[in-house]
Design a protein that fits this description.
Blueprint: E1 11-18, E2 23-29, E3 35-36, E4 38-41, H1 49-61, E5 71-82, E6 97-106, E7 120-127, H2 128-134, H3 138-145, H4 147-153
Parallel strand pairs: 1-6
Antiparallel strand pairs: 1-4, 2-3, 2-7, 5-6
Helix pairs in contact: 2-3
Length: 156
């Protein structure tokens, strides 16, 4: 995929960070004030989905997804959606859809997070159903609602 310099790549990750007890981390966007899981676009076309997920978790929460106490799992799901018109200026002309790869990151317990104040203003840990209810993005809410299914099928 060739992306003109200065434009976002229309490929991103969604990482549902959760505990074994199914508490889910949500962070509040600085620009819109909405709650979401960790999200972010690839930095370059060759960056793998996994590399993007690890980087975005670190940048947005300070959590090291590669820590031995954590388990990052590619849920093998992709959402393809229309980019909101208010955000299309970030993408090359003619780009109107984004592909989002979904991951789960199990952490041992609720952890303190270090937010990037430029991107996020608050963080909260909520039970999974309450977290889904708080999400602005329908694909984010749907991913959180799938959490119990992924916990049942995940090896220890």
């Amino acid at each position: 995929m060739s992306v003109p310099v200065g434009f976002k790549i229309p490929q991103s990750v969604l990482v549902v960070i959760h505990t074994p007890a199914q508490d889910v981390l949500l962070i509040r966007r600085a620009d819109w004030g909405t709650w979401q899981s960790v999200t972010g676009s690839k930095d370059h076309p060759e960056e793998s989905w996994l590399e993007t997920a690890i980087r975005e978790v670190q940048e947005e929460t300070g959590i090291d997804a590669q820590d031995p106490s954590c388990r990052l799992q590619d849920w093998q799901l992709e959402n393809v959606y229309d980019i909101y018109p208010a955000w299309r200026w970030r993408y090359a002309p003619g780009v109107s859809r984004n592909t989002e790869r979904v991951f789960g990151l199990c952490v041992p317990q609720t952890l303190p997070v270090v937010l990037s104040p430029r991107e996020h203003t608050a963080a909260q840990w909520l039970p999974w159903q309450a977290a889904a209810d708080q999400c602005f993005s329908p694909s984010n809410a749907e991913a959180i609602l799938m959490l119990p299914r992924f916990l049942m099928t995940t090896p220890p």
